[in-house]
Amino acid sequence: MTADPPLVLDVDGTLTRPEGWGIDPRVFDPLREWDAPVVIATGKAFPYPVALCHFIGIPELVVAENGGVVYTGDDVFFTADREAAQAVTEEYRAAGYDLGWGEEDTVNRWRETEIAVNLDQPLEPLREIAARHGLEVIDTGYAYHVKDTDPNKGAGLERIAEHINIDLKECVAVGDSVNDVSTFEAVGRGFAVANADEMAKAAADEVLDEIHADGTLAVLERVRGTR
Ligand SMILES: O=C(O)COP(=O)(O)O
Ligand SMILES: [Mg+2]
C-alpha cells in the first residue's frame, strides 16, 4: 500500500497559470483526489484560501496572511494584529502615498493581521516607516506586506500539523518566494518553482525546471504514492 504525502502549497506563483495570474484549473482534480491533507499556506487574506479550498472541494486547512491567521479546520488562531500595520500605512498615506488598490480595497478589506501594498507603490518610504514601528515589509513578488516580524507560514504549519496529527517531515511543499522560506524549513521536502525568488530557491531542497502550476503539477506526479 502506498500513500500520498501531505502537501503544503503556496498560491501566487505556485498554483497560478504559467502566465502568472489566476489559479490554473489543472490543479483542481489532483488536489481533490489527493489522499492526504492539503494545506494552503499563503500571504493572501484569510477568506481567499478558505474560498480556494471550498471551490476545490477539499477540507479547509489554511495558513493565511503569512502566518498571521491559522485555521486548523476546527479553530482559528490569530498570531498578530492589524493595528500596528495599520498605523504604518496611515503614516505612509499621510506622507502622500497610497496603498494602490483603489477605494474599496478588497485586498485588505478582510485582512486581519497585516496590510498589503501594491507593488507599483514606492517601497523605500514604506520600509522606513515600518522599521520605525518595529515591523517588517516583505516582497512576495505579488505585493508588499507590512507585518509583524514574528508570524510566518512555517509556525502556522506547525500548529496545523499538531492539530491534525501529521508529521511535517513527511510533508511536501511547493512555493515561490521569501514568504515560503519558513515553510521549506518546516517540511521534509521543499520544492521551489523555476519562477521563485532567490531566497525561496536557496531554502528549497530542489529547484524545479517548470514554472508556476507546471512546477506544482510536476511535483504532484513525482511524489504521489511516495509516503
Ligand atoms: O499575497 C501575496 O503577496 C502572495 O501570496 P502567496 O503567499 O499565496 O504567494
Ligand atoms: Mg507565492
TrEMBL record:
<dbReference type="GO" id="GO:0046872">
    <property type="term" value="F:metal ion binding"/>
</dbReference>
<dbReference type="Pfam" id="PF08282">
    <property type="entry name" value="Hydrolase_3"/>
</dbReference>
<feature type="binding site">
    <location>
        <position position="180"/>
    </location>
    <ligand>
        <name>Mg(2+)</name>
    </ligand>
</feature>
<feature type="binding site">
    <location>
        <position position="12"/>
    </location>
    <ligand>
        <name>Mg(2+)</name>
    </ligand>
</feature>
<dbReference type="InterPro" id="IPR036412">
    <property type="entry name" value="HAD-like_sf"/>
</dbReference>
<dbReference type="InterPro" id="IPR006382">
    <property type="entry name" value="PGPase"/>
</dbReference>
<keyword id="KW-0460">Magnesium</keyword>
<feature type="binding site">
    <location>
        <position position="10"/>
    </location>
    <ligand>
        <name>Mg(2+)</name>
    </ligand>
</feature>
<dbReference type="InterPro" id="IPR023214">
    <property type="entry name" value="HAD_sf"/>
</dbReference>
<comment type="function">
    <text>Catalyzes the dephosphorylation of 2-phosphoglycolate.</text>
</comment>
<feature type="binding site">
    <location>
        <position position="153"/>
    </location>
    <ligand>
        <name>substrate</name>
    </ligand>
</feature>
<feature type="active site" description="Nucleophile">
    <location>
        <position position="10"/>
    </location>
</feature>
<keyword id="KW-0479">Metal-binding</keyword>
<comment type="similarity">
    <text>Belongs to the archaeal SPP-like hydrolase family.</text>
</comment>
<keyword id="KW-0378">Hydrolase</keyword>
<feature type="binding site">
    <location>
        <position position="176"/>
    </location>
    <ligand>
        <name>Mg(2+)</name>
    </ligand>
</feature>
<dbReference type="GO" id="GO:0008967">
    <property type="term" value="F:phosphoglycolate phosphatase activity"/>
</dbReference>
<dbReference type="InterPro" id="IPR006379">
    <property type="entry name" value="HAD-SF_hydro_IIB"/>
</dbReference>
<protein>
    <recommendedName>
        <fullName>Phosphoglycolate phosphatase</fullName>
        <ecNumber>3.1.3.18</ecNumber>
    </recommendedName>
</protein>
<keyword id="KW-0119">Carbohydrate metabolism</keyword>
